[in-house]
Design goal:
heterodimer; A: alpha+beta; CBS-domain; 4 helices; 3 strands; 16% strand; B: mainly alpha; 26 helices
Chain lengths: 90, 575
Amino acid sequence: MDNGAVVGVISVREARMALLDPAVDRSATARSFARPAQTLMADDDLRSAVQKLAEMKAAEALVMDVEGKPIGVVTREGILEAWRRATQSE
Amino acid sequence: MPLWERASQPLRRQAARFPFERALVMAVAAVVGLYGGIAAGLFATAIRSVQLILFRGPEVADALFGVMHVEWLHLLAERLAAAHWHLEFAATAALVLVAAAALDALGGKRLPVFEVQRIRSVALAAALGLGLYYPLLFLRTFNGTFTQTEGGLYELLVHAPRWLWVVAPAVGALLAALIVRFSPESGGHGVVEVIEAVHKRDAPIRGRVALWKSLAAGLVIGSGGSAGREGPVVHLGGAVASSLSRFLALPRSETSLLLAAGAGAGIAASFQAPLAGSLFALEIVLADFDVRRFAPVVLACVTAVATSGALLGGGTELRMVSWSLTHPSEIAVYLLLGLLSGLCGLVYVRFVHGAERRLSALRLRPELRAALGGLVVGCIGLIAPRVLGTGIESMNAALAGQLTFGVLALTLIFKLLATSVTLGSGAPGGSFFPAVFLGAMLGAAFGKVAHVALPGIISSAEAYAAVGMGAVVAGATLAPLTGVLMMFELTGSYQIVLPLLVACGAAVAVVQGTLGGSIYTIGARRRGVQLRNAGPALSDLSVEQASTRWSRFPRSCLTTGSCACSGPPRTPPSR
């Protein structure tokens, strides 16, 4: 986070790999590992969200509100779960 | 390379890309439409024959077996000779067969065997469909040899003895029930079965069943049972589509498309309304407005209307009415009619399904139940004879403004009861036509009241009958566009569209809001059909509904950094 703006994302696995990798300098910051954050808007529909995730080859994306503040994260599992909930309640 | 081959190469490349499957589907759609058109004519004529035999028994018996036999045979031969034989039908059928045979002989080496066989079976089906014209012609001529009366079943009833009014529906229902016992799938409304076949795997409609169903429904309707004649026609169209696509090994998506096209063709031919038929297929049967599905459905409906128009001399028995809007503020009055029509549609759906549930719970043999139902309908007919049969002549009378308010109101109420009893007792027959009938009665009655209450604004009470027809249909079937287009096509007046849209929209809103399903979807759901559009699509949900909000995470999760992918990196992970 840079003044409240998202700089990038880093996964647990990547962090762990970095720790175990002797070639990585101990003074490296997360910033140097982070990938550019993939984001979706909170009011996007799930169809386009799935499309975007597939295009970005990403498993999850940050969810932004209208002001551009990150409010959460959406994952593939989350999308499936939401769809299951919605179809079951019918 | 010779010049000729080089020149034809791009053409051949195009030919290789020819969408064969698509063309085949279109051809089958046209054949299905052909069957729909002929079936509508054949069915209407068969109903008339049943009516004549039942209500003019002595005359028919005299002619067939009695003293008048010789003269009658002469008359029949004379009429047959004078009839429109439409030899172009036979010629077209022969031409189609010859073309298929030629393709078999010549193209057998170039085309795959499978495709040749497919083309041959479509051609055979088309020829058979065209050939069906001749039994229709014979039946029509047969009907024509007896004393004709204008005005359909009602006129026949007026001249028949009263005891026949009660007995005939019972006999017809009993015979139909015997057919249903012999072929159990032939009961039911017709449209629901097609919807079931569209939305369910392994629920094909067999051609034989459709024939039995037509016979049974003809007996029920011809003898005075209160049901619509479009149901069996829809079923037959669906059966032809189902059989052909199974025979041609078409994929499931194409099969359901053709089923819908067959159903739409049935409606289109029954009302001479190709647009309404197409919309019926898309709105009710497929429940989907995919543009790619439009072409085959429209083709089937147009073929059906053209065929039945050519056969029956270009008209349904439902008469065209002229229509005009006199005052713009009438729209508000039409809104009220729409709400009332919604209520009427609601009561109709409730009554039909309620009667079905109640009557099937009775511990009676199905034949006895049907016969009892027929008796009850006959007794209702004693009070209000216009409810018997399809009631086309009464609809025409209502549209022409010939009925008084008392007759309209009485017929409206008793038609509701009679149709519920007829369909509820298990007799096969359609539920679309009775909705049209109810709408005509409701609209005409409403128009009479409105005319008295607001004489300055409302000029003609009959205009309301036309709008009521569309609105009750829209409400009962939850298909606003079908209702609008049907009446637009029947009246041929563009001005009617505005009040119709208002009334149909209101009627649909009332039924959708209270029942949440139409007469078809409720019936289909009871048969265990999962309608495809029951749940929301992915595009109806928002990302927010699927996302995990950070505020829900426990504080510790954020600080330890173990949830780096799901927690905000408030503090950059040190080290």
